[in-house]
Design a protein that fits this description.
single chain; 4 helices; 153 residues; binds coenzyme A; 7 strands
Length: 153
């Protein structure tokens, strides 16, 4: 048997001390990243802010708001060095489990039409487009629409 044990990823609450590592990922994977203030506000507001860790390495995180039977997934990101290894799918599954545990029956999110990886991930989980918000996101030139996707939990 191999002496090297594969580490299982762990879901852990995000705390203020995580924000440097969170921002390093955020700034690397988005053209228009959230700011430190956006994350600090989410923590202060009591949103569901969770990290995904392999040992001491923070490899991803999500921020989710659940209220009145609905959950809104505001951010879900994986460090680029860890893409295409199943972490995004595993973390989305955790976000849906957290939402369900808080009494949500449906989960919503916005994604850029140009975000092929994000769209493919959400489609794989059965998310369907329910609306398109015109000019929702800042873009390099002008604005980009958002697709609003939802899925029954
Ligand atoms: C979207 C994201 C979370 C996917 O993370 P990941 O760990 O690479 O995802 P997984 O390895 O679990 O892949 C799950 C599925 O997502 C889809 N997917 C992921 N990356 C993809 C890519 N580059 N192109 C096409 N489909 C992709 C596939 O359907 C994949 O399933 P498969 O591997 O069986 O084909 C990651 O690319 C990321 O953090 N991107 C930047 C932030 C972001 O866009 N977040 C979501 C938008 S709100």
């Amino acid at each position: 048997m191999s002496a090297v044990l594969k580490q299982a990823p762990q879901l852990m609450p995000m705390v203020t001390a995580d924000l440097d590592a969170v921002l390093a990922i955020e700034q690397a994977v988005y053209t228009h990243p959230w700011t430190r203030g956006n994350f600090a506000d989410s923590l202060r507001a009591g949103y569901q802010c969770w990290t995904w860790r392999l040992g001491s390495e923070l490899v991803g995180y999500f921020v989710l708001l659940a209220a009145a039977g609905e959950a809104h997934l505001l951010n879900l990101s994986i460090a680029e060095s860890r893409w295409r290894r199943g972490h995004g799918a595993a973390l989305l599954r955790e976000a849906m489990r957290v939402a369900l545990g808080l009494g949500a029956t449906d989960i919503f999110l916005e994604v850029r039409p140009s975000n092929l990886a994000g769209k493919a991930l959400y489609e794989r989980f059965g998310f369907k487009k329910i609306a398109q918000r015109r000019g929702y996101y800042p873009a390099h030139q002008g604005r980009e629409d958002a697709l609003v996707l939802s899925c029954r939990l």
